[in-house]
């Protein structure tokens, strides 16, 4: 290898398909350019794809363009119509090919500028192994950081296989998918579909929003399987299959444990030392948490729940499974959240009506204490109505998977605070109305001892029953324990 080729190789930067810039170029028309709107007589020919040297321009099914060099087996997403240094690009490809010594591998190159110097981002695709590779050591921290135990090679390989399918999603030209691959993909989706039907906190719920969408995917794969068998597979179907395979392999990486095989699906190998799948453990292997002081823990949880949270932090955590946002649980969370906000608005309205009634009854709301408590209760009730309305709008925005994922992963405590505001206002409004009523009775009506004792006894019964209901409804749940 010559010194010039060695210098060019040093300009190579290893990347992976998801880092490629795609369809981001802005097309500008010159102001003084005259457009030709004439259609020639009997002009019906189909123009051939433009050629730039040995590079052929291809159109992606989604509308973007990319280029393929058949003699060098190389792809690029760079717009060669405007690229000024095609010879240097070809020289880098020749140097990289000479160093790789792998004629069967596909090369993807994207020229770029780095610190004022021309560099070449690249990766190799190994079709017979379904993986991508590089010619030098590559730090894949960004690529593998979402995976579990990424130091293990099988986990890295799964992500590299996911990127392999991502490549053919971006560059479907010359890709061939066998019938066995489509059939296995249908079986894999079918297994996820069965899991989603029988288990709400499922892998399928983490990847797809609804069962209808999964059924549509299965139906589409069935159509593609028929096309493959008849030799009619088009690039549109290739893009669809590769996108589904990329999604599945990415979640395989994110969720896999130790014993894995790269040629089978997540549901077949996700295990840890022969233990059942983590999601099944969540729902089926449970026992109560041990607490050193059960009474204090129960009272503390009830107080925090009543005064601060409409649902517990554990309920919010269940909206994501193993760090992946669970679409089904998010939807349930939003529905419960909106329903609870409506109930709190209604309860706050009843509390405000009670405050107004205390003011209108002669003598009952005459004392300063009763007036202060009822006035504060009335204002807090108004705040509850406005807060509940705005929080319902926030719940609608939580219907977006990206929006929900942002708060559930990065702003979880902020989410707890936001969901706590209507409940906090509602509880204060009701308590203020009750205390204002009692203050008005004891300050002006001068009740008998029997009436005072009866009121305190009844109030104690009501508070105790409410505490029991609060603990049962919002208190600590069950701890998921792995079977030993």
From TrEMBL:
Keyword Transmembrane applies: yes
Keywords on record: Membrane, Transmembrane, Transmembrane helix
Record-annotated membrane-spanning stretches: 295-313, 345-364, 370-392, 413-443, 449-472
Domain of life: Eukaryota
Transmembrane helix in keyword set: yes
This protein's name: Uncharacterized protein
Organism name: Suillus fuscotomentosus
């Amino acid at each position: 290898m010559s010194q010039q080729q060695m210098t060019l190789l040093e300009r190579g930067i290893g990347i992976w398909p998801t880092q490629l810039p795609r369809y981001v170029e802005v097309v500008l028309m010159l102001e003084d350019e005259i457009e030709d709107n004439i259609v020639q007589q009997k002009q019906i020919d189909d123009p051939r794809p433009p050629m730039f040297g040995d590079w052929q321009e291809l159109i992606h099914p989604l509308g973007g363009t990319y280029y393929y060099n058949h003699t060098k087996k190389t792809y690029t997403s760079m717009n060669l119509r405007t690229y000024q240094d095609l010879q240097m690009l070809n020289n880098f490809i020749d140097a990289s090919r000479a160093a790789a010594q792998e004629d069967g591998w596909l090369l993807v190159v994207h020229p770029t500028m780095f610190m004022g110097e021309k560099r070449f981002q690249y990766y190799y695709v190994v079709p017979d192994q379904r993986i991508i590779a590089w010619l030098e050591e590559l730090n894949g921290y960004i690529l593998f950081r979402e995976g579990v135990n990424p130091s293990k090679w099988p986990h890295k390989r799964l992500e590299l296989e996911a990127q392999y399918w991502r490549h053919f999603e971006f560059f479907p030209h010359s890709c061939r998918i066998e019938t066995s691959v489509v059939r296995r993909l249908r079986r894999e989706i079918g297994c996820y579909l069965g899991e989603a039907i029988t288990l709400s906190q499922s892998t399928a719920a983490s990847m797809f929003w609804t069962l209808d969408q999964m059924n549509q995917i299965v139906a589409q794969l069935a159509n593609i399987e028929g096309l493959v068998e008849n030799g009619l597979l088009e690039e549109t179907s290739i893009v669809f299959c590769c996108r589904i395979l990329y999604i599945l392999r990415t979640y395989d990486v994110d969720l896999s444990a130790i014993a894995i095989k790269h040629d089978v699906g997540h549901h077949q190998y996700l295990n840890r030392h022969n233990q059942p799948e983590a999601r099944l453990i969540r729902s089926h292997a449970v026992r109560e948490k041990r607490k050193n002081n059960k009474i204090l823990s129960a009272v503390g949880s009830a107080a925090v729940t009543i005064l601060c949270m409409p649902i517990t932090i554990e309920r919010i955590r269940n909206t994501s499974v193993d760090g992946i946002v669970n679409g089904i649980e998010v939807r349930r969370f939003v529905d419960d959240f909106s329903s609870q906000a409506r109930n709190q608005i209604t309860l706050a309205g009843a509390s405000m009506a009670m405050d107004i009634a205390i003011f209108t009854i002669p003598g009952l709301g005459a004392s300063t204490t009763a007036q202060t408590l009822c006035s504060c209760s009335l204002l807090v009730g108004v705040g509850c109505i406005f807060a509940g309305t705005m929080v319902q709008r926030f719940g609608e925005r939580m219907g977006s998977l990206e929006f929900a994922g942002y708060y559930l992963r990065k702003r979880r405590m902020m989410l707890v605070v936001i969901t706590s505001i209507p409940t906090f206002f509602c509880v204060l409004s009701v308590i203020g109305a009750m205390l204002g009523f009692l203050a008005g009775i004891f300050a002006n009506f001068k009740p008998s001892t029997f009436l005072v004792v009866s009121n305190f006894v009844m109030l104690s019964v009501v508070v105790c029953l409410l505490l029991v209901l609060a603990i049962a409804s919002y208190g600590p749940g069950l701890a998921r324990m792995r079977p030993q």
